[in-house]
Amino acid sequence: MAEPVIAVLAANSYGKADVHLLKVEREGDRHRVRDLTVTTVLSGDFEASYLDGDNSAVLPTDSQKNTVHAFAADPIGSVEEFGARLARHFAAAHPAVRSARVRVEERSWQRLPVEGLPAATAFADGGEAVQLAWATVADGRLTVACGLRGIKVLKTSGSEFHSFLTDRYTTLAPTRDRLLATEVGARWHCADGTSAWSKVRDAVLAHLLEAFAQTHSLAVQQTLFAMGRRVLAGVPEVESIDLRLPNIHHVPVDLTPFGLEPGNEVFTVFDRPYGVIEGSVRRGAPGAGAAGDADFPSDADSPNEESR
Amino acid sequence: MAEPVIAVLAANSYGKADVHLLKVEREGDRHRVRDLTVTTVLSGDFEASYLDGDNSAVLPTDSQKNTVHAFAADPIGSVEEFGARLARHFAAAHPAVRSARVRVEERSWQRLPVEGLPAATAFADGGEAVQLAWATVADGRLTVACGLRGIKVLKTSGSEFHSFLTDRYTTLAPTRDRLLATEVGARWHCADGTSAWSKVRDAVLAHLLEAFAQTHSLAVQQTLFAMGRRVLAGVPEVESIDLRLPNIHHVPVDLTPFGLEPGNEVFTVFDRPYGVIEGSVRRGAPGAGAAGDADFPSDADSPNEESR
Amino acid sequence: MAEPVIAVLAANSYGKADVHLLKVEREGDRHRVRDLTVTTVLSGDFEASYLDGDNSAVLPTDSQKNTVHAFAADPIGSVEEFGARLARHFAAAHPAVRSARVRVEERSWQRLPVEGLPAATAFADGGEAVQLAWATVADGRLTVACGLRGIKVLKTSGSEFHSFLTDRYTTLAPTRDRLLATEVGARWHCADGTSAWSKVRDAVLAHLLEAFAQTHSLAVQQTLFAMGRRVLAGVPEVESIDLRLPNIHHVPVDLTPFGLEPGNEVFTVFDRPYGVIEGSVRRGAPGAGAAGDADFPSDADSPNEESR
Amino acid sequence: MAEPVIAVLAANSYGKADVHLLKVEREGDRHRVRDLTVTTVLSGDFEASYLDGDNSAVLPTDSQKNTVHAFAADPIGSVEEFGARLARHFAAAHPAVRSARVRVEERSWQRLPVEGLPAATAFADGGEAVQLAWATVADGRLTVACGLRGIKVLKTSGSEFHSFLTDRYTTLAPTRDRLLATEVGARWHCADGTSAWSKVRDAVLAHLLEAFAQTHSLAVQQTLFAMGRRVLAGVPEVESIDLRLPNIHHVPVDLTPFGLEPGNEVFTVFDRPYGVIEGSVRRGAPGAGAAGDADFPSDADSPNEESR
User: Has the ipTM of the complex gone over 0.90?
Assistant: First the structure.
């Protein structure tokens, strides 16, 4: 008996969306970073997969992602050149492909201009830094907290993490050279009588960035304290500062399966999960007692922050 | 008979979240813009409203929003100062308030550095400009489209909109002076053989910004065409350019209900709805036929764009 | 001398994106809500606006938005029918229009199934309710807080707001009949020894929804307390509950400029700003002292909530 | 000479945010899924790390993530129980921890009610399905496209992927049993004269879900075609349907490093990159020629879709 419904595949495409990678281009002590998000889409003679689940012509999207990683090990060039190389590869390498489309998106990072820094390996992105103030009048008394958020920074050298506690669940390898990336959230309180808030704000930001760039990091915690201490040392109006440094993980891609050197130049960027390190630094005598729990500035950014 | 459950109000607060406004500070031909988002929260003797719906002590959150608008008519000062003025006002003006908290957030805008511009009234925000490339190899042939998105710009003078078609549903008033804000999306194609893509990209961006700032706007459409034409005039490699200019509405707040001058300095920023103007500009002889429908660069930014 | 660059407009379109409205269809005591987001796009003979800023053929996008509002006053029908009516109107009404495109998006709301409710006018959307738990062990002691978020509800009758405090900045009109919409956030603590957490959670949600639907609201604050009290009355394990009820503003569209009845059926939905009402309800004797400041559950949802 | 600035660490905390996992609880042919996002935060005697970069007391956040994965291999229980177990573990296992806080968030999935399905292993989440219509009048003629998006579904059995093309860049292992998750986007066109759009819509959704659940999948492509064919077979009004099925990757966590069985129950959920499979299915005779490129419904969802 005839099949009453005749359905045909009128069009097809498949690929990998949003391969987010960071490439570090090292020229001696001077580094450059490329923050790329790549999408690949192939169309062509793939009917057998759609109709019968016959995948013999289907290059997995995972392999497409790997190809992006491997090609990133070579010099990137412009986004157009990188896209063109990938599109040409996919179109030429696999006979079923009739069209290969590659979309490349790049976000910019600028080198942090830090005085006297031996190596130019610290960066801030072109993103959106937001100024914050929380003013409260309670029982007739005014208090003002000041803040910043959205300051994305990374450094491509001068960051280690090792000699940590291990337990049954530890699989992380110690490292003497890792990429450190974070998005600084800060909140500070000034001494009573302060009114030059904008001047203080500029100084706080400058000291935070400089300390981030200059500190040879053994832990994000240590970088956090160094940043806070630098602010207290350099900005006399500031009494205390709370910092939040999410650890935005950048994991080197192992290129050896593709017959390449292992490399330490191409990194996968993970949105989540992410580590999050918080701490509060204030003026005072050392040994004044154990530190309390930091649950700010997350907490501090109430009210109503969570709803957006 | 006794009420078996005794419930008490242990804490209370209410307020208005995310009052987004733009303040234009005009010093002659030189303008400055302040992009503020304000949240107000009041706590105190508001039990009667919670327990009995008795609102006699409740200042509506709408009035709190209005207060933010009215206070923005005065000089803003720092975000701390603006927050402190508002917190002090709420705490002093209404006896039921025990604590008034105000959160102020500011995003930065920079003046566009345009040569020879008579008035400094055009701005770009500190946000994230993204470079884009779409490379396609189809049937053995490579085509590359180039793009930009995320370029937020606004101008505080030199924009009109009037003499438009009206119908039964038209309520918009014509204006000779409006704030014009948009986020530029662009996609262009270069002549065959082009390879200096990065140089072209820099030039395209510079011409887009310059044309936006210098064009006295009678319509967003006109600004769009002026921007596209400028790119074609200044960048010989570009064959055609598609532009998308959402019209991000900034509506002047009427301050007269508060006993203030009407003012043209405090604007409410609307996220949506928004107008969206698209067009494609290419080299060619005028009168070569009616223009087709623009449904790009929206369309162009496939594949997979919509899913994020 | 001839102009060396000849630029032509190859394509054009303009329209209004994301007109978000809610239509209440009342059939006596039984209401139905339609949550629509509409985008309109016109293409055609609009070159004069692009080339010369001549807007005589340009129907403002604001008028397009008004048209959507006015058409929503008639029965909506299916999303296809509503889109088709609008597209036909734009194409027929204005000679310059060659193509009119309308995109209609609808989110679903379901009627809340509340026992014994006289009028079927309370709704929950099909959205994502999220279960939350915060477990803390500090100094050897475990505490657990339980929560819910993402519960969107609205009611189309039984909500008033009037008799409130007014000051110089008050322009809000009192109302005896308003649409009340919120997204419930809740956090509660159970008595020591509680372990039937999932059973408690189900009961808390049921009581929250029922109290929202059944309470004739004179203030969001009053609804909040009624919801909290109902939970304490109905769920003996719960010792206290913190609630956060953002007031998602739905403002009736004035249709009289279009020659229609004023109407109370078509509402503009505002994303922001929004009111936000918080409170904490616990077991205890009335008059046990003034309530403290509520800055949770915003605060409670630390750590790290704000970063996403 | 004494250091003039004395800075102390006033508070500290660190942890892992947003560990997103899916647990499949298998009871024979009947499966249950738990979609959990966990954040861990530790505070205590961690000053040495902040002050000196001495990490000897610091359990890496990566180990905290691993712990969440390992604990998820045991029965989850309620979100409160899962959080409590983790908080107790962290507080007890590591002497420096003074407080351990764990936040657990769960999104719900419901079993798809498919008639005659032998195993109950297909699910839809409680999320937001959106109805779409695109109506166009061009040159006097109306066309209407209909759509759906936001339909999240997954199946925990009946999905394989193997026998695919491999190249130099392929590292993916073939699998006979994988978790398949997607978020269906669909757009269809009806025959001229169709007006029962809402009835068609309901039928299309029912057939899409049923075909997803019932199809033993050898490739997402095959599932896509099966879904499209089923719609054409079951809904005579539909002439063609375009489908977009992002492949939301769920990767089994290898538990063997923790001394556990490898397991196939705990999955890491990756937001991106993701595979994306598109195709268009229409009525017609087989062998009517090679399929074209699918670049919709991504493209179709213009205009203005990308801007939000």
Answer: no
